[in-house]
Amino acid sequence: MEEDNLSARDVLEKVYLSLKGDREEIVFEKNCLCEIANDSDWHRIRVGYSIYRFYFLLEEKNKKWAVSFGKKGGGYPADFFDCDIAAIEIRDDNLKIVELFQKNTYLFNSLLFAFSSGEFATREDGFFGEKVANMIPELKRFIVEEAKIMEDVYTLNFLPMKTSFVRYDQRIVPHIVNDFKKILFDSW
Questions:
Q1: Which SS3 state, helix, strand or coil, does residue 31 take?
Q2: What are the backbone dihedrals phi and psi of residue 131, each rounded to the nearest 5 degrees, phi first?
Q3: Is there a smaller number of Cβ atoms within 10 Å at the N or the C end of the chain?
Q4: Cα end-to-end span (Å), the chain
Q5: Do the domain assignments include residue 128?
Q6: 97: left (phi over 0), alpha (psi -120 to 50) or beta
Q7: What pTM value is reported for the model?
Q8: What is the pLDDT of residue 159?
């Protein structure tokens, strides 16, 4: 059924909540802003951010990760971006988690992020790099509706106008959760 289909944001929110389970969610004192795009020049500043508001600690097999869900914010340079799930390994309990997350510029520690079109991506040169990049092609089998684009109409920031976005089968959520757990706990 169509109402069972999920947007990319729905998918990542459900993955985040599934990973969190009944663990305590900790709120950052101030929103944690991480630069993901910058179109500033000598006379103006235009920056896009992934904004993290809370996180939880995920511990297993002698590893501890802080995991957070980020959403687009700031200026138009971030318009291509929608949301992400970032994970940072905690090796020293004396470090402030917010300072660790603030280093997630340009989604370096993001497991997976969603473009505004609904497509998923990762940074191949990021912390999780190849491990996540290898799983992305497999996610395409969960697509139930491709994005529709008006090729001859453009937005003010010169992106093609989208009339609908990628939608996914809900079975993608446990699939990503299992992959993330393997990546976080079994592959190091």
A1: strand
A2: -60, -45
A3: N
A4: 39
A5: yes
A6: alpha
A7: 0.91
A8: 73
Amino acid present at 166: V
Residue 147 lies in a domain: no
Q: Which two tokens stand for residue 9?
A: 């944001």
Residue 82's pLDDT is: 96
**Residues contacting residue 19 through CB under 8 Å, at least 6 positions apart:** 56, 58, 67, 85, 177, 180, 181
Are 170 and 6 in contact, with CB atoms under 8 Å apart? yes
Structural domain tally of the chain? 1
Enumerate residue ranges in the chain where pLDDT < 50.
none
Tens digit of pLDDT for each residue in 109-158?
999 999 998 999 999 999 998 999 999 999 999 999 998 888 788 876 67
Residues 123-158, buried b or exposed e (16+ Cβ, 10 A)?
Answer: beebbbeebbbebeeebeebbeeebeeeeeeeeeee
Length of the chain (residues)? 188
- 140 three-class SS: helix
- Which residues are CB-neighbours of 105 under 8 A, at least 6 positions away? 34, 35, 36
pLDDT for the residue 187 = 67
In a domain, 148, yes or no: no
For residue 80, give its domain range.
7-133+171-185
